[in-house]
Specification:
Its EC number is 2.7.7.9. The structure is a single chain. The protein has 508 residues and is an alpha/beta fold. 28% of the residues lie in helices and 26% in strands. The protein has eleven helices and 26 strands. The strands form eight sheets. It has an eight-stranded mixed beta sheet, with helices on both faces. Strands 21-22-24-26 form a four-stranded parallel beta sheet, covered by helices on one side. Helix 1 runs antiparallel to helix 2 (48-72) and helix 6 (237-243) crosses helix 9 (334-342).
Length: 508
């Protein structure tokens, strides 16, 4: 009893100490944010609307920061691994093939739909400048071009009026506004709004990086796609959509070329009365870290790898136990979003994202406090998952992905990529090394896309160049040694081969 008492006192003392530190940090942050706001309010060149928006964003950030400190100093929000259960396959996660709709062909529901693309990211990871959505991906079309073509085809075919909404960030807004002008003659209404701009925080002092409203871009960050709901509400676009008779918002990442409007899912959501639907798909070796739906204390929740205790990471990656993952294709009821935002009910898990910025030629560690819109499923009535075919998850995150979607594995139809009928089995696993990381380097080394229809696995590393009309089949591994070069000649057919060293002429 004495030992238990001492342990209890020690734990309580530690908590009080952490709580005290939290109060100090909260007070210091509030004072620093007040100075930030004052620097903007005193500037006569800034419009009232811009001042109002900035004040709202700072208040939202402070709320998030305060919640982060409270949760950090408490164990109340820590997941108990033993309480995690597989979701109910009858109600919480169902298979796409088992969706029962009395109106699978009810196209009138399209008039209740709006499509939103998450368009806040830059193409920097692939060596590009500007919004990622304007990278050319297929036959001269960008991600944005393909999204517009898909929805325009829907509107023309079914005489519907599905609008396209773009959630931009302060990094992508100016370029996007300029680019969407070219669609003014298309049969599609394009709306856009900006997600919040939050101040980065020094990891050591927990104080904001920006010193004034107009501090450089490196001082700020867009706070993840969990910010969607509040930003959509604050922009006025949510009320606009509801007034236009829209009921459902289909959300997806701008770089997921498989995220197209599916009438079967739309009709199922409306008929079921659910407020939220998440598309899941089966995991492969490339997706073991993807978040998945679980049942926790009787409610459905999204479990992300960042929430998993270290001792259970391998178990989380086991595709037999956690069979599918979140594609971030989400279908959400607009009036439900309005209700939850107005009631301040959305308290998604906070993801501390570590970054580095340069100060006086030194790298300083900073924090970005982010949230994910998939984690909001627990707050919506009737929220559940649908396990969809892998074809609905076709993201382009790297040049390895770019090679696949440019190849003969797919063909383009009304802006939608479709798998060639001759293809057998899942998509190939493609790994291109650091020499292919940037789009310009990729294009200089692979000027002509090889035929991949019968490819299972491709690995290329080092100083490698592919010629014209190259065909790759089965498992192909090409590894070039440092300081060497490998040229794959025109017309080569490589099937189940390993090529290493230095090669400039290849018999075929």
């Amino acid at each position: 009893m004495v030992i238990t008492s001492k342990k209890h006192i020690k734990t309580q003392s530690t908590y009080n100490f952490e709580s005290s530190k939290s109060n100090v940090a909260t007070s210091q942050m509030r004072n620093a944010l007040n100075k930030l706001t004052d620097s903007m309010l005193d500037d006569p060149a800034i419009s009232k609307d811009e001042k109002f928006r900035f004040e709202n964003e700072i208040d939202s950030f402070f709320t998030l920061f305060r919640r982060y400190l409270v949760e950090k100093s408490s164990t109340a929000n820590t997941l108990d691994w033993d309480k995690i259960k597989s979701p109910n396959n009858e109600t919480e996660v169902i298979n796409y093939d088992r969706i029962v709709s009395t109106k699978d062909e009810n196209v009138s529901n399209l008039n209740k739909l709006a499509v939103l693309k998450l368009n806040g990211g830059l193409g920097t990871s692939m060596g590009c400048v500007g919004p990622k959505s304007v990278i050319e991906v297929r036959e001269g079309n960008t991600f944005l071009d393909l999204a517009v073509r898909q929805i325009e085809h829907l509107n023309t075919k079914y005489d519907s009026d599905v609008p396209l909404i773009l959630m931009n960030s302060f990094n992508t807004d100016n370029d996007t506004q300029h680019l969407i002008k070219k669609y003014s003659g298309n049969r599609i209404e394009i709306k856009s709004f900006n997600q919040s701009r939050f101040p980065r925080v020094y990891k050591d002092t927990l104080l904001p990086v920006p010193e004034s409203y107009d501090s450089g871009l490196e001082c700020w960050y867009p706070p993840g796609h969990g910010d969607l709901f509040e930003s959509l509400y604050n922009s006025g676009k949510l009320d606009e959509l509801i007034e236009q008779g829209k009921e459902i918002l289909f959300i997806s990442n701008c770089d997921n070329l498989g995220a197209t409007v599916d009438l079967k899912i739309l009709n199922h959501l409306i008929e079921s009365g659910a407020e939220y639907l998440m598309e899941l798909t089966d995991k492969t070796r490339a997706d073991v870290k993807g978040g998945t739906l679980i049942n926790y204390d009787g409610e459905i929740r999204l479990l992300e790898v960042a929430q998993v205790p270290k001792e259970h990471i391998d178990e989380f990656k086991n595709i037999r136990k956690f069979k599918n993952f979140n594609t971030n294709n989400l279908w959400v009821n607009l009036k439900a979003i309005k209700r939850l935002v107005e009631n301040d009910d959305l308290k998604m898990e906070i993801i501390p994202n570590k970054k580095f910025i340069k100060r006086n030629n030194q790298e300083i560690e900073v924090l970005q406090l982010e949230t994910a819109c998939g984690a909001a499923i627990r707050y919506f009535k009737g929220g559940h998952g649908i396990v969809v075919p892998r074809s609905r998850f076709l993201p382009v995150k790297t040049c390895s992905d770019l090679l696949m979607i440019k190849s003969d594995l797919f063909y383009l139809e009304h802006g939608t990529l479709k798998i060639d009928n001759e293809r057998f089995g899942p998509n190939p696993l493609i790994k291109l090394g650091s020499h292919f990381k940037k789009v310009n380097d990729f294009q200089s080394r692979i000027q002509h896309i090889p035929k991949l229809l019968e490819l299972d696995h491709l690995t290329i590393t080092g100083n490698v160049f592919l010629g014209k009309n190259v065909t790759l089949k089965g498992t192909v591994i090409i590894v070039c040694s440092d300081g060497e070069k490998i040229d794959i000649p025109n017309g080569s057919i490589l099937e189940n081969v390993v090529i290493t060293g230095n090669l400039q002429i290849l018999e075929h």
